[in-house]
């Protein structure tokens, strides 16, 4: 199985990107993991929030294949402990899917079409985080999940 993290907009902070890179590199020992960034929309001043979500949704759909399993990071999603998240990933791997795509949306969330295409929603917290920090948190949690599944000591530090 491949795990893909798809996100809207680049990471402006070099420090955050360095940390993301650390966990992305560590993950290569466990799973095919990739991060793809969809550039921010240009000329959005005259677009409503709904129009921006629709345009982002079109860009996202172009990045998906028919067999992808899409999971959204959404404030209304299910919350997991790290151990529960590792079990969630194990179930996904056991199900035989080819590619699990985790999606971080733009500043206004997702279009209705993206919600319809998704097979689930996960919430990291009831708090709101910057999209850039969410990338780091998700990458670290995926890494943590694999160390839990392999019974390695990282989770207990």
UniProtKB/TrEMBL annotation:
InterPro entries from the UniProt entry: Alpha/beta_knot_MTases (IPR029028), RlmH-like (IPR003742), tRNA_m1G_MTases_N (IPR029026)
Enzymatic reactions: pseudouridine(1915) in 23S rRNA + S-adenosyl-L-methionine = N(3)-methylpseudouridine(1915) in 23S rRNA + S-adenosyl-L-homocysteine + H(+)
Top enzyme category: transferase
EC annotation from Swiss-Prot or TrEMBL: 2.1.1.177
Main localization category: cytoplasm
Pfam families xrefs: SPOUT_MTase
Localisation: Cytoplasm
SUPFAM superfamilies assigned: alpha/beta knot
NAD among keywords: no
Record has DNA-binding as a keyword: no
Keywords, ordered alphabetically: Cytoplasm, Methyltransferase, rRNA processing, S-adenosyl-L-methionine, Transferase
GO molecular function, one term: rRNA (pseudouridine-N3-)-methyltransferase activity
Domain of life: Bacteria
Listed GO CC annotations: cytoplasm
Annotated binding of S-adenosyl-L-methionine, by residue: 105, 124-129
Role summary: Specifically methylates the pseudouridine at position 1915 (m3Psi1915) in 23S rRNA.
Subunit structure comment from the entry: Homodimer.
Family: Belongs to the RNA methyltransferase RlmH family.
Protein name: Ribosomal RNA large subunit methyltransferase H
Record gene name: rlmH
